[in-house]
Amino acid sequence: MDFQLSDDQRALQAGVRELLAGRFGRERMRAALDDGTGVDRALWRELGEAGFFALRLPEAEGGVGLGLPESVLLFEEVGRALLPGPLIATHLAAGPVKGAAQGGTVVAVLDPGQPVAHLGEADALLVLGPGGGPGASAVSVDVTRVRDDATPVRSIDPFTPLWRAGRPEETGERLPGGGRLRDEGALLAAAEQLGSAARTTEMAVQHAGEREQFGSPIGSFQAVKHLCAGMLVRAELARCAVYAAAVTADPVEIAGAKLLADDAAVRNARDCLQVHGGMGFTWEADVHLHLKRAWLRSGQWLTAAAAEEVLAGDLC
Fold first, then answer.
1. CA-CA distance, 234 to 229, in Å (whole number)?
2. Separation between Cα atoms, residue 170 and residue 184, nearest integer Å
3. Which residues contact 6 (CB under 8 A, 6 or more apart)?
4. What is the DSSP letter of 105?
5. How far apart are CA 268 and CA 6, in angstroms?
6. Which residues are paired to 164 by β-bridges?
7. What is the rounded distance in angstroms from the CA atom of residue 150 to the CA atom of residue 108?
8. Phi and psi at residue 21, in whole multiples of 5°?
9. Phi, psi (5° rounding) for residue 248?
10. For residues 257 and 187, is the Cβ–Cβ distance under 8 A?
């Protein structure tokens, strides 16, 4: 079997990378950070026009008609670019929630017991059933009341505002397959972690080749080589697991992929910071942004404890 990306998949991934580089490059990312901007509505609509949210909708419904593997490729690029916003929830809600597919509606996710990200900017809520149950619904009419009753909480990621909210009455349209939505959300979050892990690997290698100590690039030192090699191994292991889970959509494989991708994103960001040395601890460096996002994302959609329970259950 050939598990290499097809020419169309490579072109899709390259197109998204080019789009994000032009619309959310480092300068704009830093400007958004300084301004406290969360969701860029103009970029959101541009992503909608490009088919980002409607990627898996049938062509008859105005979508692109592609599958879960292609969605994974898109969200891998999102992770590389550190694009903020509840992109996963909006992508999953495209179709049932009016305007989500076009990028005109921002959909946040409410997972019982977890803080709600970007609630203040959301137009609708994707409410997941408790404990991985089958129920899930998109609630648009209650979002204002949920927001009024919610309490802002401090977020480790400056791009991701968090709110503590109770579970609303599910008066909106019910989406079928709540368990599937949770699994797919976990896989797309793993894809974002994969993109971040790959990007921090590139950042470390680039810095190791440019920074000199004792008349030589620090990349020539064995300790730095070992750090960069370990980062590459973790990223590629996570890539294999994420891509395989995208093909099978198996909940057990998705749980394993999320564990590996979370580990790769967090540990690669830490090692990238180590390679950068004292410079990596400064606000001006981007390393801390990847680390903070990786920490936050590892607790979203599928936590390590929940993923381990899924894997342990499969062994019984």
1. 9
2. 21
3. none
4. S
5. 28
6. 151
7. 14
8. -65, -35
9. -90, -30
10. yes
Rounded to 10°, the helix 251-276/287-297 angle is: 160
Find residue 126's DSSP bridge partners.
109, 138
What is the Cα Rg of the chain in Å?
19
Q: Where are the alpha helices (H) located in the chain, listed in sequence order?
A: 7-23, 26-35, 41-49, 68-81, 87-93, 143-149, 178-210, 222-248, 251-276, 287-297, 304-315
- Paired tokens of 315: 């062994």
Looking up tokens 């009455």 gives 169
Task: Using alpha carbons only, give the angle 92, 114, 145 rounded to the nearest 5 degrees.
Answer: 80
C-alpha closest to that of 84 among 32, 135, 11: 32
Could you tell me the two tokens for 88? 């996963």
pLDDT tens for the chain, 316 residues: list them: 567 889 999 999 999 999 999 888 888 888 888 887 778 898 899 999 989 999 999 988 888 889 999 999 999 999 999 999 999 999 998 888 889 999 999 999 988 788 999 998 899 888 877 654 455 555 554 677 778 888 999 999 999 999 998 766 655 566 656 678 889 999 999 999 999 999 999 999 999 888 878 888 887 788 889 999 999 999 999 999 999 999 999 999 999 999 999 999 999 999 999 999 878 788 888 999 999 999 999 999 989 999 999 999 988 7
SS3 label, residue 254: helix
Around 180, how many Cα atoms within 13 Å sit in the side-chain half-sphere?
A: 9
Distance CA 279, CA 273 (A): 8
pTM above 0.90, yes or no: yes
Residue that has been written with the tokens 């019982």 in this structure: 112
Which residue has 């990007």 as its token pair?
A: 199
- Residue in the block written with tokens 């020539």: 220
Phi, psi of 139 (to 5 degrees): -115, 110
